[in-house]
Write a structure and sequence with these properties.
It is built from seven helices and nine strands. With 267 residues, it is an alpha+beta fold. Strands 1, 4, 5, 6, 7, 8 and 9 form a seven-stranded mixed sheet that branches. A two-stranded antiparallel sheet has the order 2-3.
Length: 267
């Protein structure tokens, strides 16, 4: 019997091992299933009009961003035991690299002043740079993580957490608040129906959103059971900052935006 060759772990996996410990902090988890018909129609129309690859994940991300503007408790972070607001509404989207063996964020700054098409365009360009290994910040951070031994990586990430995610300054190749105040990942691109995001402590992000695959499912519409395209969206939030009432308010806003995606472009 031939032994399976041992595969060298990716830099992202090395960082993950040094980042997470057993969970001790409060997290709030939520799930919603949404009729994706209006979102799919909106994406198709915007792609035809602009030539930009507008995706359901981009639309969902912007629905949460618009909602967070109305529920400001989701726009804070904890620094030295104090609740501090983020300086701007930046949204980061996860980009899979090399078939998912590696992941990296691309951040859209000032998303509150941009349309969905503008955000989708920035997301597409950022993903292209990351996959071409042309993103300077990502390459710098990967290079540092590759060289630093594992026993020094954890304290290094603790320093990065304070500088990047807390105080908000550039360090170790990463900009201030590298994941913004809202992080969106699309596991639907891998065919998964739903999942929950594990928070990245060093980024101090208050809200993580996970978008599942769009698939036909029976739904109740005006008292009748019909088959519609459905997407499951989950969220992981910092329970130190928000409670169930805040989550419920945000969920209502997101549902309303996804039912009428054109309202997202009123900037």
């Amino acid at each position: 019997m031939t032994a399976t060759p041992r595969r060298r772990p990716s830099v992202r996996r090395k960082i993950a091992v040094a980042t997470w410990r057993p969970s001790r902090e409060g997290r709030l988890y939520a799930r919603m299933a949404v009729d994706a018909t209006p979102v799919l129609a909106y994406c198709a129309r915007k792609r035809a009009e602009s030539g930009v690859p507008v995706t359901p994940a981009a639309v969902v991300g912007m629905a949460f961003q618009r909602g967070v503007m109305q529920v400001p408790e989701f726009h804070n972070r904890v620094v030295f035991g104090r609740i501090v607001p983020f300086p701007s509404y930046d949204v980061a989207f996860a980009v899979d690299i090399e078939g998912g063996d590696d992941l990296a964020p691309t951040k859209v700054r000032g998303a509150d002043g941009k349309t969905v098409v503008e955000v989708a365009g920035e997301l597409a360009r950022g993903a292209e740079r990351l996959r071409a290994r042309a993103d300077k910040d990502f390459q710098t951070t990967n290079g540092i993580a590759r060289l630093v031994p594992w026993f020094l990586l954890r304290p290094l990430l603790a320093v990065a957490s304070l500088l990047n995610g807390g105080i908000g300054v550039r360090a170790f190749g990463q900009p201030a608040h590298p994941l913004g105040s809202l992080f969106v990942t699309n596991i639907g691109s891998f065919g998964l129906d739903e999942g929950y995001v594990a928070p990245v402590p060093l980024a101090r992000v208050p809200l993580y959103v996970c978008v599942g695959a769009v698939a036909d499912a029976p739904m109740a519409v005006e008292g009748q059971v019909v088959v519609r395209p459905r997407v499951v969206i989950t969220a992981t939030a910092d329970h130190r900052l928000v409670d169930g009432a805040h989550a419920a308010h945000l969920a209502r806003l997101v549902r309303a935006y996804l039912a009428e995606p054109d309202t997202l472009d009123a900037v």
